[in-house]
Amino acid sequence: MQWETVIGLEVHVQLATRSKIFSGASTAFGAEPNTQACAVDLGLPGVLPVLNEQAVAMAVQFGLAIHAEIPEVSVFDRKNYFYPDLPKGYQTSQMYHPIVGPGEVEITLEDGSTRRIRVHHAHLEEDAGKSLHESFSDGMGHAMTGIDLNRAGTPLLEIVSEPDMRSAKEAAAYLKAIHSIVTYLGISDGNMAEGSMRCDVNVSVRPRGQETFGTRAEIKNVNSFRFVERAIEFEVERQIELIEDGGEVVQETRLYDPERDETRSMRTKEEANDYRYFPCPDLLPVVLDDAYVDHLREALPELPADKRARFQDELGLSAYDAGVLAASREMAEYFEVVKDTCGDAKQAANWVQGELAGALNREGLAIGDSPVSARQLGELIARVMDDTINGKAAKQVFQALWNGQGESADEVIEAKGLKQVTDTGAIEAMIDQVIADSPAQVAQYRDAEPEKRGKMIGYFVGQVMKASRGTANPQQVNALLKEKLDALC
After folding, report:
1. Hey, which of 150, 436, 456, 486 has its CA 20 to 30 A from 202?
2. Which residues pair with 199 in a beta bridge?
3. Which residues make Cβ contacts (< 8 Å) with residue 403, sequence separation at least 6?
């Protein structure tokens, strides 16, 4: 039987506000446990929440970026459940009237094709605290759980897709697209390692051609693009094997264990009515007028899809290059400075995706932490393009800049004597000396069939480049060598 996978994602994005969604407590990452939870976050008697206006603006910006409907009125609800890291016994969220309505996100797949994934809605809510199950005991060998409430009340935007994805790679591409949008907007740093972005993955399978959905399992709190793919692949295989062996998929919540590369059951999946949602009596409805929404729309930056299109249409880059360079706002901005400095978009793209990306990967650095600035790289490329240095020397200059051995490409070129020799007389003198020192190789060249001489010239080129310490212009060396050697035949 041919099976079809059905996937929907619920992406939780921590908004980049300095204070929490309903209190003035800090949202800074890495503080000592329970030092950033105030009376409002703890739900102490007599306190009332006050909505963070910046969180509202960020949510609306996201909605505009995905061409979503922005309702005039949105309402906060209480989602009731008990858990030790939820001090109020409920989470303030939005169920019936979310701040962002239906929209869509364009994803780009590995083959360059694109698809549009529908977004059902996005809503604002507060985060819960964090339970820490390791390294705690009562001193008598009994395990304990620590509760850190620093995250309690941190503003989240939960983005709920329609079940439009049909493979693990599509799901990962969708998550990357969301990450790209929120970081371009500046509404989140998207740092998945710190919990700024994570997602719940809903997965089911059905016979190909069947209209009704299969029973879904929800995999909670997956925090990397790679883990999303691996979790889905495992879960799809598990469900298919279960059904084909005569079993049934149970609607449940599961977790993904990256060390074992498997999903495991946590609990049966709750339905909305299990949470007893009702409108929050402490918060008024949020009313957005057209002028407010239009003001936020006008302030939107150039978004990833628009930037990709511009890179292709105006700069002549391939769809692949444009997609890679536009995926991250920092990458795109770096590339554009390099391009403006050297004056050639294709050369800039090649260096940013080649030499620079390789160095960043080896060192485990983000592009924002690159030791080589965009202007330095652009100046280096310009020196290659005007034949000041050749490609081999350019790599030496790049490494020197990377290691902090110069302020500019020109400084490194001068200090290391890497300026390319283009003087014909000087190159001819080196060629004449190499030919004089290589009688056996010259004889072999002279006796060889004409069609085989092309490969044999490499020896002489290597000797000339060695004599020039790599500074001779390779094109001139090749042309002059061929001319002189052929004259001896």
Report:
1. 150
2. 11, 222
3. 371
